[in-house]
Task: inverse folding
């Protein structure tokens, strides 16, 4: 079955500037068949979206760095044809409030099929626990995938961990090695957050469960973006830090979609058991002193991995306790190396 590809084209002005070279206002106006004033307005709009477009007197405009815009062909090229058959829609947007919200507002795909939505920029990107997800224009991958589980929500507690495994694999394919996973679903590089997962669920009792899996990855980060994100207390990393070069956003996005589609079919068939060994091998905190934050209290202990349902195991003075994702969050105790 063919995948339907839709999207709002980025302004042609941005397509022309994406090479990072200098373009005169006159040449831009000619190519776009508009006035110089319209070019200037367009430049102001791009700046308003956070794009660093500089103007050089009597020479023209240029972006601080070349920009790789999302490209359906390049994303599709990373997806195995068998997985591509599962994909009902691939929507690429220029800007949106949140890709998760967009898919949650849509009807669910039939069981066994998926809808994907990616955006260059999210104006209201959402993270776990009501936090914001901040990603500058074109610097990351903001992706959501909608999927319907035939058998409802009963086995979904560990889905976020399997998503982490799929994303770590995808980043490895994109040349970023050394990924680890922090329970339940942060992707880390050298103890810094490179990406996160937000899973949202719509289920009816006894019926199928519609999930929207949102994945946010920092592909590159300017010093300013790092400062902004880290002001919320989270140490961050980017795929570029882990791959020693400038990674392709389309490769990262395509590899994530491919690995998610592969994972979802297997998770539905075999459950988290099929991913537990890999998750354990990537566990960032096993054997380390941690703090578990619950709604009303905070516990200290040593992280001891996860059980077959993906629940966190914490060794405390009063024995091993288990926590399911959603009810608890985990912190590495400061000073631990
Ligand atoms: C977290 O670590 O707090 C989860 C971050 C999830 C961010 C992604 S970006 C794509 C999707 N759309 C959203 O609004 N959020 C998720």
Result:
């Amino acid at each position: 079955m063919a995948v339907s590809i839709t999207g709002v084209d980025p302004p042609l002005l941005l397509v022309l500037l994406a090479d990072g070279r200098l373009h005169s206002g006159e040449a831009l106006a000619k190519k776009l068949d508009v006035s110089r004033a319209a070019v200037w307005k367009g430049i102001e709009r791009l700046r308003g979206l956070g794009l660093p477009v500089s103007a050089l007197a009597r020479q023209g405009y240029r972006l601080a760095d070349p920009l790789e815009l999302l490209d359906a062909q390049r994303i599709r090229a990373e997806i195995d044809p068998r997985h591509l058959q599962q994909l009902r829609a691939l929507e690429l947007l220029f800007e949106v409030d949140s890709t998760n919200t967009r898919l949650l507002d849509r009807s669910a795909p039939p069981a066994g099929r998926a809808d994907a939505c990616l955006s260059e920029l999210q104006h209201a990107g959402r993270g776990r626990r009501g936090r914001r997800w901040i990603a500058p224009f074109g610097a990351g991958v903001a992706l959501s995938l909608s999927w319907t589980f035939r058998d409802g929500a009963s086995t979904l507690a560990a889905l976020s961990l399997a998503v982490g495994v799929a994303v770590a694999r995808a980043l490895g394919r994109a040349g970023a090695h050394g990924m680890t996973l922090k329970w339940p679903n942060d992707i880390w590089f050298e103890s810094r957050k490179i990406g996160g997962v937000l899973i949202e669920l719509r289920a009816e009792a006894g019926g199928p469960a519609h999930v929207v899996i949102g994945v946010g990855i920092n592909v590159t980060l300017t010093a300013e973006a790092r400062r902004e994100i880290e002001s919320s207390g989270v140490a961050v990393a980017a795929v570029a830090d882990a791959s020693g070069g400038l990674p392709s956003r389309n490769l990262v996005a395509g590899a994530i979609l491919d690995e998610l589609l592969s994972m979802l079919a297997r998770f539905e068939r075999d459950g988290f058991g099929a991913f537990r060994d890999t998750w354990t091998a990537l566990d960032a905190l096993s054997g380390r002193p941690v703090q578990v934050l619950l709604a009303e209290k905070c516990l200290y202990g040593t992280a001891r991995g996860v059980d077959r349902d993906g629940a966190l195991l914490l060794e405390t003075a009063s024995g091993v306790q288990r926590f399911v994702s959603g009810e608890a969050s985990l912190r590495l105790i400061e000073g631990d190396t």
